[in-house]
Amino acid sequence: MNLPEATYVLSDDELDLLELHLGGGTDRLQLDGDLPQVPVTLTDVENTPLAVLRGTDAGPSAEAVKPFARAAGPHWDPALRRPARDVSHGLRREVGPEGTVLALVVDEAPTRQELDALPGLTSSASAVLVLVPVQRRSPAPGAVGAPGLARVGMLVRDAVGATGARTSASVVPWAPGRGLDLATVAARYGADRTVRLSDVRDEGTVRRLATLGTRWSDEVHALYPPDVAAEVEHAARGARQEGTVVFFTGLSGSGKSTVAQALAAELDDEGRHTTLLDGDAVRQHLSKGLGFDKESRELNVERIGYVASLVAYHGGIAVAAPIAPFASSRAKVREMAEAAGRFVLVHVSTPLEVCEARDRKGLYAKARAGEIPEFTGISSPYEEPTDADLVIDTSTVSVEDAVAQVKELL
User: Fold this and answer.
1) Which of 74, 89, 112, 400 qualifies as a cystine partner to 150, CB 3.0-4.6 A?
2) 221 within a domain of the structure (yes/no)
3) What is the rounded distance in angstroms from the CA atom of residue 246 to the CA atom of residue 311?
4) Is 170 annotated as a binding residue?
5) Same domain, residue pair 24 and 126
6) Residues 220, 232: contact at Cβ < 8 Å?
7) In this model, does residue 386 exceed pLDDT 70?
8) Which one-letter DSSP state was computed for residue 191?
């Protein structure tokens, strides 16, 4: 396929919407920015072409170019994250033309009340499909994120199965605020009827959930006199853990971004406040306008290091994944990070020939053709670190294992 020259970089929400669209889950493709022209190549933040958007009489429609990059975690399990059309076809074969499919939407952690209501909700259905809407972006503070929602969705599936009902589950890429309707999307997945499980809650449960966040404060004020309670709350707000900078370095295509994204998602899921500073994303914002000469690349890495050290100073975890080819700029990042907290250097040592074979963005081919000057690994050197805390070769280690190795260090 010849790709259009015009490109549009998708946000996390737009990536979720595109994935849902390509899988047959919706016809809607509402993008935030102004498209330069149609047709246009839709890319992720790493500039990997994913689809071509064309205008049709029925509205914009996208044609897939490359598969989406997958990360680690239960919400990325291929057995769960299936296209809507595949799920629908499978269900129809199971229940036949006269059967009815109930979709149970799990978009919040279910309480005992919802689980106790499952037998009554599902008794008349031929099959029950548990749908778990998840998002690429980080959840709001205190909210259950995508990995946790996928896990509780599987608990709901198993609880329904224990009643004797025929059941299955599917993770749904979800983009709030894009005009999506749960029942309409569920119908694309093969459902005849849709129930949002959290809607089963009575007013008493809703009130109890609303007060969860204030119970600690209420107990403090019950135990201490007012002035003392204020000091206890102030101390609790000021407490912070030691921050950490996890710094990935490696060639383009080595897999460092994939591992970094998976690590950040898992740490976020565990309640550890995590900020991801991926190389290509930073280039679009923090380092916009910088070139790719040695001085510009070193400045880009130092900017990433400075922001990462601020995150660590305030007790958070910063996960950074630039190429960072030069030892001198990595040393400056280490110095800034260790002044703020802890520094962990991970060298993703995937061989050049493997990185070049992957070449999702076509950069190595352009560098070999002389179209990209000073390209790391081809026409510009990569100085392998001698001070790495961990060395990972993603051609021999899975993303899940790589994440587990980094977490052991933390």
Assistant:
1) 74
2) no
3) 11
4) no
5) no
6) yes
7) yes
8) -
